[in-house]
């Protein structure tokens, strides 16, 4: 990491932005998780983020400016079950980012997180090789599509730019609305939309959606 810092300073004279985007998973139930897997994931996902933030951050502090963007995940708030220590490491990343924002803010250094969910990447490609998996996951997302790398890159670019100069210690969810879907995914007789439509029809209310020509999304 220090070699990368030195090379960056040699080439550009300063460091403007660091994007922390390392991450590995080791799948296991917590009662079966080997300590070696626990340590390996923490070393990459949390300790790795700390080392790069510290070493590049020192240069930002000296320069009086800089932006750190850490790739976290919505699973830092809701457990990614049977994925070992993954969620715990990303929750740690969120708090580390807040610590850096609070301590380094007076030096002109900002630190924020991006929290993706369900994104097609080389690491997740095997999940989406099964069309049923993609269909099932898409149903959990408000926009009904799996994210692309460009969706995450756009959020990173915002946090790395001057357009976000008054944002620090925060996190942007880039999850297609997944985090808002708990209520929508809770079952009701006949489906949530149908239940609401029938309720209004029984009250004699004429539904705009019946005449609008707009196709209704189904609960499926």
């Amino acid at each position: 990491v220090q070699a990368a810092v030195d090379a960056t300073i040699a080439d550009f004279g300063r460091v403007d932005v660091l994007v922390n985007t390392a991450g590995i998973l080791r799948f296991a139930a917590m009662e079966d998780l080997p300590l070696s897997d626990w340590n390996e994931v923490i070393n990459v996902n949390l300790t790795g983020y700390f080392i790069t933030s510290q070493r590049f951050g020192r240069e930002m502090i000296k320069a009086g400016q800089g932006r750190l963007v850490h790739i976290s995940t919505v699973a830092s708030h809701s457990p990614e079950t049977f994925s070992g220590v993954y969620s715990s490491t990303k929750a740690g990343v969120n708090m580390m980012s807040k610590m850096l924002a609070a301590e380094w803010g007076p030096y002109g250094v900002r630190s924020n997180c991006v929290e993706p969910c369900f994104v097609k990447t080389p690491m997740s490609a095997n999940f989406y090789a099964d069309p049923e998996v993609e269909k099932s996951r898409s149903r959990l997302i408000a926009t009904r599509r799996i994210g692309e790398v460009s969706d995450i890159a756009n959020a990173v670019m915002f946090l790395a730019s001057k357009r976000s100069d008054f944002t620090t210690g925060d996190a942007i969810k880039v999850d297609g609305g997944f985090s808002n879907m708990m209520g929508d995914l809770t079952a009701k007789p006949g489906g949530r939309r149908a239940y609401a439509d029938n309720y209004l029809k029984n009250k004699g209310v004429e539904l705009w959606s019946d005449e609008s020509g707009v196709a209704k999304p189904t609960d499926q």
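The two ends are 47 Å apart (CA to CA). The chain has a mean pLDDT of 93.
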